[in-house]
Amino acid sequence: QVQLVESGGGLVQAGDSLRLSCTLSGRTSSRYFLGWFRHAPGKEHEFVAAIPWSASSRLYADSVKGRFTISKDNAQNTYLQMNALKPEDTAVYYCAAATGWAGSVYERYDYWGQGTQVTVSS
What we know:
Elements: E1 3-7, E2 10-13, E3 18-25, E4 33-39, E5 46-51, E6 59-60, E7 68-72, E8 78-82, E9 91-98, E10 111-112, E11 116-121
Parallel strand pairs: 2-11
Antiparallel strand pairs: 1-3, 3-8, 4-5, 4-9, 5-6, 7-8, 9-10, 9-11
């Protein structure tokens, strides 16, 4: 069994920074493709960022490019550094893992965390 747990969310002001963490446990011997998605009330879930096991590339949504940075460690935990936060970044943020190449495709991810709330005030 694979489990993902997010942490680091909170309430911040516009322009502030926040760092989200996602801890992976269970079948850590597998090589996972890792990603972050977010979901705001009344809106469809949205891709944020992703990174392959090798960390050879990184993928970002246009709305966060230049402000957010995804990274990972050797234990396959993943992190999302969020800078210059905007009120429109307010959402529940979820980390996810896939056994294959998932990219930005929601349906290709196999495991999901419980989410962490990020609220950005103006």
